[in-house]
Structure formats: C-alpha cells, structure tokens
C-alpha cells in the first residue's frame, strides 16, 4: 500500500533550508545516500535509518566523480518514478528525496589538453600523493570547474580502489558534499561495500563530521565462514574454495581477499576478526559481497 509522498528537492540551498527548519523544530534527520534504481538493499538502509531518527532523507544522484571516463556513466540505470513508488511503500515512509541535477556544475572551465585516458591516474606508491595527469574522472572529462577532492589515502588503495582508481576519491568527495548539504544526524550505508563503509567511517572521524555512521545489510559467503568456524584458518584455502565456486558458476574473480577488519590488510591465517571481501564479474555485471568472520 502506498504511503506518504516524499518532498522532492532538487536545489541544494533548498535542501539545506529544509534540514535546518526541521532541526529547529527539534527533529533529527537520518540520511541514506543512493544513486537511485532502488532495491531491497536500499530499503533495508531506510528501515535502519528509521531506528535512529524522526525524519528520513534519501538522496538520488548518480555521481560522475566516482566514474572514470572508460566506465559508462551514461548507461547507469535509473528509474526515478519507480524509485519514488518504492519509497512510498516503505513503512514509515521517507520525508524528503534530494535529487540534484548536478552537484559539480558551479563553474565551467574546460582545461586545455584534456586527455580522456583514465590510465593517466598514477599512484606514485610509497604513500605519497598520486601523480595526476589530465582527466581522472567524468567530472574532469566534462570540464566542470571542480578541483577539490577528499581522499582517504590508505584505505582507498586496495581491492575496489585497485581496479577503479578514481572511485573512492569520488565517493568520499560526494558524501562530504551531501553531508554538508543535508546536514544529517545519522547516515546509513550498506555494509555490502565494506571498503566504502570503512572509508566513510574514517573520513567522518578524520574530518570531524558530527554525524553517526550506521550500517546495514550483510550477505553471506557462508560456506567459507562455516569452514573457518570449523577450524580452517588458512586464508589461501578459504579463498581458493570461493574462487572455484565463483568460476564454476560462470563468474570471473576480480578479487577475493581476506583482510583484517580494522586495517583492511590481507592476512594469511585467521587469528583475529577478518572480513572476506569478494568482487566478481558475471558477464558485464560486477558484483561485490563480503562477510565478517569473527573467530
Ligand atoms: O554506494 C553508493 O550507492 C554510492 O557510492 C554513494 C555512497 C551513494 C555515493 O555516490
């Protein structure tokens, strides 16, 4: 049954004004950032947000800053009308949907000599600054006048950061912008993308945002977990069995890593809490999943 219709806000100043007005009435604001095309995972984040705050804001914005020019931003799926219907069906509903047209479009100044080759992003190694030459994300490719980026330098390096070098820089930057605009009390992220969640948690701590970062949803790599619980602590063995299962299901592994929950560094044997993170291609679709193992 359809519930209340959320207020749809497209202007960032309007969004900020809405949040401030609500807070001045003593309301607390829960925030779920999304790129739209909502599914059950997003709905579970909204349900989680309802446990923390009076009001809920969902943002729907496909962020060009986290796509490199070789990734197809223009074919990213969207169904705004369908999304609103889904939000109306959530118990307790959603109070506002922030749906900006473009959060980088404050000035245009296409640099000369723009190069659309994303391999021009080089990490210099040794923990230093990356060497940036030419375009690194769709924001630079479009010649938008944006040049400030938030980077969580160590946590962004491995796993998804390896295969998508501009991804976490774009996520950290847009989440910072969204936090500044929506000014929520609590923000909820899916633990499905464990690295993203850890990066945002770290960013909130390092940049002193007074926002609580909550999380939801967890799927299972349950066989590896039960093997580990039954004494198999050798990570190579655990990884091999999952890789084999993915391959025999027709997938192609991007990475399968068992890493320390705090540092995200790979471990050889499970001696402390770890998380098993996996990304695999099934045709043109890249899926990610993770499971914490606490033994
Ligand atoms: O997880 C996502 O959908 C996106 O990375 C996010 C957090 C909405 C930022 O664009």
UniProtKB/TrEMBL annotation:
InterPro entries: Pantoate_ligase, Pantoate_ligase_C, Rossmann-like_a/b/a_fold. GO terms for biological process: pantothenate biosynthetic process. The lineage of its organism: Eukaryota, Viridiplantae, Streptophyta, Embryophyta, Tracheophyta. Residues 108-133 are annotated as: Disordered. Its EC number is 6.3.2.1. Pathway: Cofactor biosynthesis; (R)-pantothenate biosynthesis; (R)-pantothenate from (R)-pantoate and beta-alanine: step 1/1. It comes from Carpinus fangiana. The keyword Ribosomal protein does not apply. Keywords: ATP-binding, Cytoplasm, Ligase, Nucleotide-binding, Pantothenate biosynthesis. Belongs to the pantothenate synthetase family. This is Pantoate--beta-alanine ligase.
């Amino acid at each position: 049954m359809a519930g209340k219709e959320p207020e749809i806000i497209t202007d960032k100043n309007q969004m900020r004004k809405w949040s401030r007005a609500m807070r001045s009435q003593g309301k607390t604001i829960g925030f779920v950032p999304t790129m739209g095309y909502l599914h059950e995972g997003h709905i579970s984040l909204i349900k989680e947000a309802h446990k923390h705050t009076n009001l809920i804001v969902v943002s729907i914005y496909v962020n060009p800053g986290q796509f490199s020019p070789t990734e197809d931003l223009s074919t990213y799926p969207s169904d705004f009308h369908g999304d609103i219907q889904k939000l109306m069906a959530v118990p307790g509903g959603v109070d506002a949907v922030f749906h900006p047209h473009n959060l980088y479009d404050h000035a245009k100044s296409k640099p000369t000599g723009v190069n659309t080759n994303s391999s021009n992003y080089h990490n210099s190694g040794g923990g230093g600054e990356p060497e940036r030459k030419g375009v690194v994300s769709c924001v630079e490719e479009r010649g938008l006048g944006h040049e400030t980026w938030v980077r969580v330098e160590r946590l962004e390096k491995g796993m998804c950061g390896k295969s998508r070098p501009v991804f976490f820089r774009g996520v950290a930057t847009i989440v910072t912008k969204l936090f500044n605009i929506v000014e929520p009390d609590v923000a909820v992220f899916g633990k499905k993308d464990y690295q993203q969640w850890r990066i945002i948690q770290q960013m909130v701590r390092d940049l002193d945002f007074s926002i609580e970062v909550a999380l939801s949803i967890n799927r299972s790599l349950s066989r590896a977990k039960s093997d580990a619980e039954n004494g198999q602590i050798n990570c190579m063995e655990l990884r091999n069995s999952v890789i084999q299962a993915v391959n025999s299901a027709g997938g192609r592994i991007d990475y399968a890593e068992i890493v320390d929950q705090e540092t995200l560094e790979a471990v050889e044997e499970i001696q402390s809490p770890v998380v098993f993170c996996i990304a695999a291609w099934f045709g043109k679709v890249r899926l990610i999943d993770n499971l914490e193992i606490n033994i």
